[in-house]
Design a protein that fits this description.
One of its GO terms (molecular function) is antiporter activity. With 482 residues, the protein is mostly helical. It has a domain at 79-325. The chain is 72% helix and 0% strand. It is built from 24 helices and no strands. Helix 2 packs parallel to helix 16 (326-344) and helix 16 (326-344) crosses helix 19. The longest helix has 30 residues, at 187-216.
Length: 482
């Protein structure tokens, strides 16, 4: 007769042990040895599984819990490679290059700082990548500031604010999609709810950068050679026309009308492919490579001499493709595996119960979420993990209190995605400091969008403004979300 193993109640000590192990592994592994986060998360998963074993859970119990956790989000996770597919299509059709081209030409020298902010926002909204925006137009704008003896901390703060504005709101940004999927929220509902904390911050940025720019009288600013070369290279490489705006219009329409994201993304990509064949003279083979493996400049027609193009064009355009999202895919699976192993014994519930004990208001819950998000971001030097770990951990608590999931996903972005570049030792903090040549502590006051989101999140939680209730946002089935 098979012996039935009785499951034992997990104490708080054993419940939090896997989290501590994972945090220690990530801190030491990342800072001392440069090890990627995914294998370190899996060490935490293994420790959670071992603890589950000693508390009466079989391997099958733990494995089933992991599979259940991943399967809950699987339809939404499929959005991730779809985004890579779409970016590859937008690149080869000329949609993203055209937006960048006119964005660069639009710079108004009389309003330099606000122009830097807007340009960073335009590029990151189009590409869904803050790092890409920083590594291209960010470098160009810093060059302008150096040449004209303008404030580098203000310039860096403006570019960072703009770049992370797009990373936070763009439907093709991985962080935007991860935040929504981690709590089971509809992507477009999540983006719409983000506006409550992002638009006020955007307005504050506009006022501050405009005022500072006018007070410093920067009307003599001229475009540096790098910007002129980039504009010229884009003009040589593509044939621009208004029809290239059709793909983003499709995504915008899908967002407003709340159509299912995956069909909307693929329809936009299909239109982009047709535009690439019609206007850009790319071969079908190149288009196929672009949507799968990412766009490369050597795909340009032979009539374009790629050796004469600006080096910045490589960093700006060589991206996209479904394969490019594999790293994000692995991170998501690793994080949900950890959450699944923790759920096998109810450890995650025990930790969250302890964290939320004594919380009597929405303000206290949002504040706890913000503190948790910043702590995870600071401890792991990663802005994605707060979205995944805190999102899965807190979603039941929000539901229990009658709060719609979009409140949680919004707060996670306010305390995770946009906070990363103002923490000096995180990947984004180090990257931004290296790109701009400005210490994090120096540009921090001017990276206004990176901290105003948290301030407005707390304000709305205290007043009840911009807080969605479950009755206003009926939970959807996972299939409907995707």
């Amino acid at each position: 007769m098979n012996q039935v193993i009785k499951k034992k109640e997990v104490t708080f000590f054993w419940a939090i042990t896997p989290i501590i192990i994972m945090m220690v592994c990530i801190c030491t592994g990342y800072f001392l040895y440069g090890i990627r986060a995914e294998p370190l998360i899996l060490i935490g998963t293994a420790s959670a599984a071992i603890i589950a074993k000693f508390h009466g859970c079989t391997w099958n119990d733990t494995f089933k819990s992991i599979c259940d956790k991943i399967s809950e989000a699987l339809p939404v996770i499929l959005i991730v490679p779809s985004i890579g597919f779409l970016i590859g299509a937008w690149m080869i059709s000329g949609t993203i290059p055209m937006m960048i081209y006119y964005g660069l030409k639009w710079i108004n020298p009389e309003y330099f700082y606000i122009s830097a902010f807007f340009l960073g926002a335009i590029v990151s909204v189009c590409t869904g990548t803050s790092w890409g925006s920083m590594g291209t137009v960010g470098i160009a704008m810093v060059g302008v500031a150096i040449g004209q003896h303008l404030s580098l901390p203000v310039t860096a703060g403006a570019i960072i604010s703009g770049s992370w504005f797009g990373d936070k709101l763009s439907p093709v940004s991985d962080s935007t999609n991860i935040a929504a999927l981690s709590v089971g929220a509809n992507l477009y509902s999540h983006i719409a709810h983000l506006l409550w904390t992002t638009i006020p911050g955007f307005i504050v940025c506009c006022v501050v950068y405009t005022f500072v720019g006018k007070s410093l009288n920067v009307s003599s600013v001229i475009e540096p050679e790098s910007v002129i070369a980039l504009i010229s290279s884009l003009d040589k490489s593509y044939h621009f026309n208004i029809l290239l705006l059709l793909p983003p219009v499709v995504v915008l329409y899908g967002s407003i009308s709340k159509k299912p994201p995956i069909p909307t993304l693929f329809l936009s990509a299909l239109i982009s492919i047709i535009l690439a064949l019609t206007f850009q003279s790319f071969s079908l083979a190149s288009i196929g490579d672009s949507v799968v493996s990412g766009f490369k400049l050597n795909m340009l027609p032979k009539s374009v001499d790629i050796n004469s193009l600006s080096p910045d064009l490589y960093r700006l355009l060589e991206r996209g493709g479904a394969v490019s999202m594999f790293s994000t895919f692995v991170t998501i699976f690793s994080a949900f595996s950890f959450a699944g192993a923790m759920s096998a014994t109810g450890a995650l519930r025990i930790v969250i119960t302890a964290l939320t004990k004594g919380i009597t208001s929405t303000l206290m819950l949002v504040a706890t979420t913000i503190i948790t998000g910043i702590t995870i971001c600071g401890c792991t030097a990663n802005g994605t993990l707060p979205l995944l770990l805190a999102g899965d951990a807190f979603k039941d608590e929000y539901k229990k209190r009658g709060l719609a999931s979009v409140n949680l996903s919004r707060t996670l972005e306010d305390a995770g995605t946009v906070v990363e570049p103002i923490i000096p030792w995180t990947a984004s903090g180090v990257y931004c400091a290296a790109i701009t040549g400005v210490l994090t502590i120096d540009y921090l006051p001017w990276a206004i969008l990176c901290y105003t989101g948290m301030c407005f999140a707390l304000l709305w939680a205290a007043t009840g403004i911009g807080i969605a209730r479950i009755s206003q946002d009926t939970p959807q089935k996972t299939s409907e979300i995707a």
